[in-house]
Amino acid sequence: MRLAELAVGTEASVTAVSGTGSFRRRLLELGILPGTRVEVLGVAPLGDPLELLVRGSSLAIRRAEAASVEVTPIEAASAAQTAPLFVGARLGGEP
């Protein structure tokens, strides 16, 4: 599946980045590397660009660029297992 095909709110793991030369290098420099977790935060009103959360940073890339990134969607159950369990309880005191 391609990054450009993901719906808003979907998390995925990057499996491959295709493309050539400076285009591919720029995606890698932005942190879109194989094994990296990405989340689609939003899409512009006309469908381009996409807003992504990558390594704690918000990025906007064109849909055509996102089409060159192969991803594997992360299921909600596995994403919930990796979510922090701390909900705001105080350590050493009453909640």
Oligomer: single chain
* CATH domain class name: Mainly Beta
Low-confidence stretches: none
Helix content class: 10-25%
> At CATH's second level, what is the architecture?
Roll
Q: Rg to the nearest angstrom? A: 16 Å
**Could you say which overall geometry the principal axes of the C-alpha atoms support?**
globular
Total strand count, please? 5
Ends: how far apart?
Answer: 44 Å
Strand order of the largest sheet: 4-3-2-1-5
* Tally of individual domains: 1
User: What structural class results from the helix and strand content?
Assistant: alpha+beta
Give the integer mean of the pLDDT values.
Answer: 82
Do you know the CATH topology? Answer: SH3 type barrels
| SSE string, helices as H and strands as E | EHEEEHEH
Counting H and I runs of at least 4 residues, what is the number of helices? Answer: 3
> How is the main sheet built?
5 strands, antiparallel
| Strand residues, percent | 25-35%
